[in-house]
Design goal:
Blueprint (H helix, E strand, L loop, with lengths): L6 E11 L5 H11 L3 E6 L4 E8 H13 L6 E10 L7 E3 L20 H7 L43 H7 L21 E5 L2 E5 H13 L4 E4 L4 E6 L3 H11 L7 E4 L2 H7 L4 H7 L6 E5 L13 E6 L3 H8 L5 E6 L11 H7 L6 E5 L11 E5 L2 E6 L8 E4 L6 E3 L9 E4 L2 E4 L9 H17 L8 E5 L5 H8 L4 E4 L1 H12 L7 E11 L5 E10 L3 E8 L2 E4 L8 H9 L17 H13 L3 E4 L2 H11 L11 H11 L11 E2 L2 E2 L2 H13 L3 H22 L4 E5 L6 H11 L3 E3 L10 H12 L2
Parallel strand pairs: 2-5, 8-14, 10-12, 11-15, 18-21, 21-22, 23-30, 25-29, 30-31
Antiparallel strand pairs: 1-3, 1-4, 2-3, 6-7, 6-14, 8-9, 9-13, 10-13, 11-12, 15-16, 17-20, 18-19, 19-20, 23-24, 24-25, 26-27, 28-29
Helix pairs in contact: 5-9, 13-21, 14-15, 14-16, 16-17, 17-19, 18-19, 19-20
Bound molecules: zinc ion (ZN) (2 copies).
């Protein structure tokens, strides 16, 4: 017997990254599937839906929205309220009734989707081999947006009017390209050209074929990507790699490698299921994983290799046209300047580095570097938060006040808090470079404009270091200012990710350098407290002298001179097996002894440098953290060993017994691998000892030192679920701005 169903109506509000990701056509298709009538449109705070149907169908419809959203969407909330039945005859997509407001989240850039890839390689498709193919599930977003709302006239595609065919797809709600703002084809859209020695030689398909040939022949080719140019060369061609290092002034810092596909990636690195998922995820970061063999010159003295999969149609096409399956893909810049993203800048700055340029005709609105992540003991660990991540909300803070946190000077990134949502910028770089500082200022202006925040209304948060470029710039901005101590910000960044404002924790912040409460160089700090109540310094690494101050970070031997000054009966370290370079070591020891240009420090980063020097890393570090990574690399080669004694007495982690034992063991001829492993165990041990003397609580660890996965493994084995570390923003200084914002949000009224 037929039972007449009762029609009811509901209003659904969907929050999160739901605009510009094909959400409305998705809702439209679901409505048809479940026989729902009503409408959907983009509102100020997300997607609004009016749905009418029988109760069971409505429930299934709402559930399906949450369970199978479009791949690029990130649903943060679904609110459902009862509504009046208006007897709609069908379901429709309505034009946005209001302008999209500032709290609508902007989608990060997306890798090309499978459906577009199939069309890209289908000779019968009208976008066959078209390097800018995209749809609502894929393609550029953040890197082409000039303003909100996210509509074509507000993107760098505004100068490319759609042809009839593209326009028909754009306006068809049943089409995968409905309202895909960067939609284009070879007839109406941008293409690529190949420039060699100042003149354009080829265009479109021919340009890509010739570029692939140049890569095969060992040339260095600059290729425009989503958020900037890459410098590419054959990763298996040692001569090409050496030439790239030479021309880029990049001595030893590892290069990232792009693999043609997962199979090629698996041949060169060890990937477990989590790493494979991360590698192929919609974020497509560079994933650090254990290398199966050494590619000459790619990552010297490093057990890990940074690898990523192709993510733009252009990259896929280069491989299809015969580019080597493993390509070095490094940010196009000299040394550690910001990545070049405009054509003129790339042609200018890369002159003499690249042999040829693949110039894409779609403009990039802002630079967005590749992100770097790895699978770590406590979950995903992000080392560089950029493409695929930015400008997503990384946390929700309990504040209504707009906040701008400007981060620290190294690995700078800024965080803007609007309506409680914390948006962390893409990686900006080291502000000592003028071009990075310019990018820092531009990013602040860009984010404030995008989220329609007036600078006068913003609470400005900066590091406590009075001479940081970021601090000095913050002080020139209007509004109220507040300083947050570096290591407290590290600890708060972890708690902000977890929205733990009142939980009393033990906070361990270990890094290279940060300005302490007393003006000295901190970096081995243990706090107790909570974000709301504040963090009290409960213990720290014993103070050592650091001759040359921050410059000592580049010379492990110089840090060693300061730390070893406190060790009795020290042998001649310029002799075997230590062989410290005599002039630098003696000079630094002299400075330390006379307390000239010498600064007190409690930096664990410099303790790592000291141990690196004792184990043989006596040359200059060519990038931040190099010596510490080298020590971790050694330790990985050892089996399990007992920890050196690293006692915690009177709230001080005393390094003297530890360093004395290492000196003794080196002279005795113990393997450096074992010494490095026993050193790692000692650090984990010291943290656990310090925790034992404090209340049993969650142990929060953050700071650059905790990018060391061996150390994290040792801690996780002992602390278990009580160990909290960063999984959303970097544990290095790239995550500082979130912690600054969190402390300001909770403590400044
Ligand atoms: Zn697509
Ligand atoms: Zn077209």
């Amino acid at each position: 017997m037929l039972r007449e169903s009762v029609v009811i109506a509901r209003r659904l509000h969907i929050g999160g990254v739901v605009q510009g990701v094909g959400f409305r056509p998705f809702v439209f298709r679901l409505a048809r599937e479940f026989h729902i009538r009503g409408w959907v449109y983009n509102g100020e705070r997300g997607v609004e839906i009016h749905a009418e149907g029988d109760a069971g169908a409505l429930e299934a419809f709402a559930r399906a929205i949450g369970e199978r959203p479009p791949p690029a969407a990130r649903i943060a909330s679904i609110e459902s309220t009862a509504s009046q039945v208006e007897d709609f005859a069908e379901f429709e997509i309505r034009a946005s009734e209001k302008q999209a407001g500032p709290t609508v989240r902007i989608s990060p850039d997306l890798p090309v989707c499978d459906a577009c890839l199939r069309e890209l390689f289908d000779p019968h498709d009208r976008r066959f081999q078209y390097p800018y193919i995209n749809c609502t599930d894929c393609g550029p977003r953040y890197s082409i947006i000039l303003g909100l709302p996210y509509d074509r006239p507000n993107t760098t595609m505004r100068d490319w009017p759609m042809c009839e065919d593209c326009s028909a797809e754009y306006h068809d709600p049943g089409n995968r390209r409905f309202h895909a703002q960067p939609l284009a084809c070879a007839v109406c859209g941008p293409n690529v050209r190949l420039q060699v020695a100042g003149s354009v030689r080829y265009r479109a398909t021919e340009a890509m074929q010739q570029a692939a040939r140049l890569l095969r022949d060992g040339s260095i080719v600059a290729v425009k990507g989503l958020g900037g140019y890459h410098l590419a060369c054959d990763a298996r061609n040692a001569r090409a790699v050496a030439a790239l290092r030479e021309r880029k002034y990049r001595k030893e810092r590892p290069f990232a490698v792009m693999a043609r596909d997962l199979e090629a990636a698996r041949e060169c690195v060890v990937l477990d299921a989590d790493a494979i998922a991360l590698l192929g995820s919609i974020r497509r970061p560079i994933v650090l994983a254990e290398a199966r063999f050494e590619l000459a010159g790619i990552a010297p003295d490093n057990r890990e290799l940074g690898i990523m999969l192709a993510y733009t149609p252009l990259q896929h096409l280069l491989y299809a046209f015969g580019a080597p399956e493993l390509l070095v893909m490094t940010s196009a810049n000299r040394s550690s300047e910001p990545i070049a993203y405009t054509d003129t800048d790339a042609l200018d700055r890369l002159d003499g580095i690249a042999d040829a340029f693949v110039i894409g005709e779609r403009e990039i609105a802002r630079r967005v570097d590749d992100s770097v992540a790895r699978v770590a003991p406590a979950g995903m660990s992000v080392l560089r938060h950029s493409r695929g991540f930015a400008p997503e909300a990384v946390a929700t803070l309990p504040t209504k006040h707009p906040i701008l946190a400007v981060g620290a000077d190294l690995k700078n990134a800024v965080t803007l808090v609007v309506s409680g949502e914390a948006f962390s910028s893409q990686h900006i770089g080291d502000l000592e470079h003028f071009s990075a500082f310019e990018a820092f200022r531009a990013t602040i202006a860009d984010m404030c404009a995008m989220y329609e925040v007036r600078m006068e209304d913003v609470l400005i948060v900066h590091d406590a270091h009075p001479e940081y470029a970021s601090t000095l710039h913050a002080l020139t901005l209007p509004g109220k200012h507040v300083a947050v101590q570096h290591h407290r910000a590290h600890v708060a960044s972890v708690l902000a990710e977890r929205a733990q404002w009142d939980e009393p924790v033990i906070g361990v912040a270990f890094d290279g350098t940060g300005y302490g409460d007393d003006g000295s160089i901190w970096g081995g700090e243990i706090f107790t407290g909570s974000v709301r109540a504040g963090f009290r310094r409960a213990a720290h690494l014993r103070i050592a002298a650091l001759p040359g101050g921050d410059a000592a970070a580049r010379f492990p031997v110089q840090a060693a001179a300061g730390f070893l000054e406190q060790i009795d009966e020290l042998p001649d370290l310029t002799a075997a097996p230590f062989a410290f370079p005599a002039a630098r070591y003696r000079g630094a020891s002299e400075l330390a002894r006379k307390r000239v240009r010498t600064f007190p420090t409690s930096s664990i980063g410099r303790l790592f440098d000291t141990v690196a020097a004792l184990l043989g890393f006596t040359r200059e570090s060519t990038f931040e953290g190099q010596a510490a990574m080298w020590v971790e690399h050694l330790a990985r080669s050892s089996g399990p060993v007992a920890a050196y004694s690293f006692p915690v007495r009177n709230a001080e982690l005393d390094f003297r017994p530890l360093l004395a034992a290492i000196v003794r063991d080196r002279i005795r001829g113990r393997s450096v691998d074992e010494i490095a492993a026993a050193f790692h165990a000692a650090i984990a041990d010291a943290i656990c000892q310090a925790c034992d003397t404090l209340e049993p609580r969650h142990v929060v660890v953050s700071g650059g030192v905790f990018q060391n996965t061996l150390l994290l493994e040792l801690l996780a084995a002992r602390i278990g679920d009580r160990l909290w570390t960063n999984t959303v923003v970097p544990a290095n200084d790239g995550g500082i701005s979130l912690g600054q914002a969190a402390i300001a949000a909770l403590t400044v009224s």
